[in-house]
Design goal:
Blueprint: E1 4-5, H1 8-13, H2 23-36, E2 41-47, E3 52-57, H3 64-70, E4 75-76, H4 97-104, E5 106-112, E6 119-124, E7 127-133, E8 139-145, H5 152-157, H6 161-178, E9 183-188, E10 191-196, H7 202-209, E11 218-226, E12 233-241, E13 254-258, E14 261-263, H8 266-275, E15 288-293, E16 299-300, E17 311-312, H9 315-330, H10 334-337, H11 343-353, H12 361-371, E18 381-386, E19 390-395, E20 398-403, H13 404-418, E21 422-432, H14 436-444, E22 449-453, E23 456-463, H15 472-480, H16 485-496, H17 506-517, E24 532-536, H18 537-543
Parallel strand pairs: 2-9, 13-15
Antiparallel strand pairs: 1-4, 2-3, 3-8, 5-6, 5-8, 6-7, 9-10, 11-12, 12-15, 13-14, 16-17, 18-19, 19-20, 20-24, 21-23, 22-23
The chain binds adenosine-5'-diphosphate (ADP) and magnesium ion.
Magnesium ion is lined by residues 29, 32-33, 92, 97.
Length: 557
Amino acid sequence: MTIKKLPTNVIKLIAAGEVIDSFTAVVRELVENSLDAKATRIVICVYPESWSLQVADNGEGMGENDLLMAIQPHTTSKINSSDDLAKINTLGFRGEALHSIAQLADLNIISRVKDSCGWQIITHQTEVIKSYPKAIAVGTIINVTNLFGNIPLRRQLNPCFKKQLKSIQNLIFELSLCHPLVTWQLLVDARLILSISGNNNRKKILPQILKTVKYSDLEEKQIQINTPRQNHISELNLLLGMPDKISRPRADWVKIGINGRVVKCPELESAIYSSFHRTLQRDRYPLFFLHLQTSPQQIDWNRHPAKAEIYLDNIEFWQDTIKENIEEIFKLTDHNISTKFDNKRVENILKVAENKAIYNLESSSKEIVESKNKLGLINLQVIAQSRNTYIIAEHPEGIWLIEQHIAHERILYEQLKKSWEIVTINNPIILSKLSPKQVENLANLTLEIDCFGEDLWAIRSLPKMLLNRDDCSDALIEISWGGDLDTAQVAIACRSAIRNGKKLTIKEMQTIVDEWKITKNPQTCPHGRPIYLSLEESSLYRFFRRHWVLGKSHGIT
Ligand code: ADP
Ligand code: MG
């Protein structure tokens, strides 16, 4: 598409309030242009001392005429008329950025489109002072020098470069997750400080951004959905740290990208936080990146002057979709587990190494199929208990240790969430020395409580789970100390769950395992502790060096 000047009516419609006031703002505009030009490699070099920077890309480039047009005001190749405003699929469309930057700095732009020769222009205060052919690969290199040279105040108002560098890095982090095909490099004074290789795999990109995150800590889900009330397929991509493996010390990494750019959308953020409710330890927060590619008509950018915060149409639909899919990811299904197991490879190696070795290979794949019951959940067969604490269960692809108390606690907690039942009791429980606040807290939990004499209170109804427990009074005192209903439910689940140290029969343990594996959040207990440890057959195989087996013995029959 060639670059044209926008009609006046369109210019009036899109009058922008954004100002280019920092290094980061310039970098943002230039890299967004590179992304709009379908670049897959973007290199950013900044020279803070001399207020200069360069952005080079391998995008579609600009021809000679376009290059001259690009720095004029309100010139763009991305829209033509006001009708196009409703269907913008690019990051830019106002045709103002290059012109604004040309007002604030000197530009040296080299660009080449396919099947044409390259061209270079040099500008000073928006005037083109030189323009000539130049040899270059297809793509664009934009050099910005003497930035804010004519507005010294703006230089003074810029935060220290350390802060700016952080915001440039953050910008690259966010854009790299939104555009997983792109490879990025950031150099400061010719020193490489950040490099992200894109391979269309967000799960591989996030560990490059956060060094403490491992590939195996993450789960990813890609979903195609019919956009509500529109003949359009949206694509939703969820990437999350599994709560039993990784979390954040601050609420700083729940990020939402929509149509190629990270935005604030508090409704979606709250849906994500609520899906992680009671899966993480206290004061820990989820690691989550979501990208939604949807029809531009779904988005209303007029929530924030800088377009950083948006309204999304059909918000409840998107909230529900996100919650349902997070729930799916948390499930213990063969599909989810298979990412951790490298069973196919193990199977092949075994088959080659030992023709006769059955080693449960046949039955193992049969069991996998069988285990896909209607929920698609994994097959876990309890075989023993260890230290009266761990349930040992066999899975077709490994051995699992499940801590009995917290697995049971998870089951009870989710039962309480589903139905909080208060039942009246014939013989009231008498408690003494309750403070007015404790009495109020118990009443808030809809328990029937009344004064029974001096410093005595009678509790005439109880949460059903506490019925017939010897430690009922202790439990009531515990929940009277405050917190909301959820806190009380966690306390009751913890108190009622089978203790560690209790001997269990295989049947009892199988019941716990069967009920636990269908809970909504089987990874962690309501306090955020991991519930199970899986020893994968592939790792056991490697550990015991089973690949050393050359003959027909060595324990394989
Ligand atoms: P907008 O992005 O809103 O269209 P800009 O002022 O940022 O406006 O850019 C003007 C035009 O210059 C763009 O529409 C695009 O055609 C062209 N352009 C800018 N940067 C690049 C680039 N890196 N590669 C190819 N074309 C570019
Ligand atoms: Mg632009």
